[in-house]
Write a structure and sequence with these properties.
29% of the residues lie in helices and 29% in strands. It is of the alpha+beta class.
C-alpha cells in the first residue's frame, strides 16, 4: 500500500441547491471511479480539504462519511483516509459467442437471487421490444446478482411465454438466462443495446444497497435469434463502482479517417 497523497480541485458552488458536502462527495467519488484516485492512496486530510474547498470541518467530515459508508474509503484516526476501491473491469463483447462466454464466467464468480418469477400480461415496453400483441403473456423475472456478498446488478427480463415455460425458477437461479434460451431451441445471433445513465429509485436503490439518487448504469437490450425474432427484452441496472462497459475500438480505414469502429474483425 502506498502513502501517496492525491489532491482535488476546488470546484464546488455554494449557489447550487445541492449541499456542499454532497458536491465534495461527488467530486471525490468520481475521481475514485475514474481511477484518478488509486486504491491504497491517501486523500487529503480534513484540514487540507477544508482549505481546498473553503468549507467547515463538519462539511468535510460528512462528505468523507458518505464515501466511507459506500466502502470507497476507510478512515483511521492518526492514519488518514485511504481509498479502498478497486476499479472494476467488465467487458462488453461485440458478438454473442463472447457474451455467452462472459456470462458463464459471471455465473462462476457471482451468485443470483431471484426476487420475482411470474407470467404476466406484457407491458407496453415488452410488447414493443418483443414484437408481440398487447394481450400476450410473457415471463417476467427480476433478479439481483451479487459478488462477494455485494449486489452489483438489478435485472428485469421479459421472455415470450413459450421460451419462459421451458425452464424453472430453480434453473434461473443457477444458469445464465441466455443459455436457458438457447436450450429451448432458439439460436441467438445478435442483440441491440442501449446504455444510459440513471439514478437509483425506491426499488433499485435498496436492492443494490445504494442511496436513492445514486448514479447507476442502465443497459437496455433486445436479443434476437437467427430468424431475427426477438427472444428476450432485458433491462439491467449496474452499480458503476462494481461494473463498467469496455469496448475494443479499431480505426476506420482511410488515410485521414477520424472515426472508430467497435466491430470485431
Amino acid at each position: 500500500m502506498t502513502d501517496k497523497v492525491v489532491t482535488a480541485k476546488n470546484t464546488i458552488d455554494d449557489s447550487l441547491p445541492t449541499p456542499l458536502y454532497h458536491q465534495i462527495y461527488v467530486l471525490i467519488r468520481e475521481k475514485i471511479y475514474s481511477g484518478s484516485y488509486a486504491n491504497g492512496s491517501l486523500i487529503p486530510t480534513e484540514n487540507e480539504l477544508e482549505k481546498m474547498f473553503d468549507v467547515s470541518r463538519i462539511t468535510v467530515k460528512r462528505a468523507l462519511d458518505e464515501l466511507a459508508s459506500e466502502g470507497l474509503v476507510t478512515r483511521q484516526r492518526g492514519k488518514g483516509t485511504t481509498i479502498t476501491f478497486n476499479n472494476p473491469v467488465s467487458s462488453s463483447p461485440t458478438n454473442m459467442d463472447g457474451l455467452l462466454e462472459d456470462l458463464a464466467t459471471i455465473v462462476k464468480e457471482t451468485k443470483v437471487k431471484v426476487l420475482e418469477f411470474d407470467y404476466v400480461k406484457a407491458s407496453p415496453q415488452a410488447t414493443d421490444a418483443l414484437k408481440i400483441t398487447a394481450a400476450s403473456i410473457v415471463q417476467k423475472a427480476v433478479r439481483v446478482r451479487y459478488k462477494n456478498e455485494t449486489p452489483f446488478s438489478y435485472v428485469i427480463t421479459y421472455l415470450p411465454e413459450e421460451i419462459g415455460r421451458s425452464f424453472s425458477y430453480d434453473e434461473l437461479e443457477n444458469e445464465p438466462i441466455l443459455a436457458l434460451i438457447e436450450r429451448s431451441g432458439k439460436n441467438i445471433s445478435r442483440a441491440r443495446q442501449t446504455v444510459t445513465a440513471t439514478l437509483a429509485d425506491g426499488t433499485t436503490g435498496p436492492a443494490l444497497s445504494v442511496s436513492i439518487g445514486s448514479p447507476l448504469l442502465k443497459v437496455s437490450r433486445i436479443v434476437y435469434d437467427y430468424d431475427d425474432k426477438p427472444v428476450e427484452y432485458i433491462t439491467i441496472y449496474y452499480r458503476p463502482d462494481h461494473y463498467q462497459l469496455n469496448l475494443e475500438l479499431s480505426r476506420v480505414k482511410g488515410e485521414k479517417s477520424n472515426f472508430w469502429s467497435a466491430e470485431q474483425k
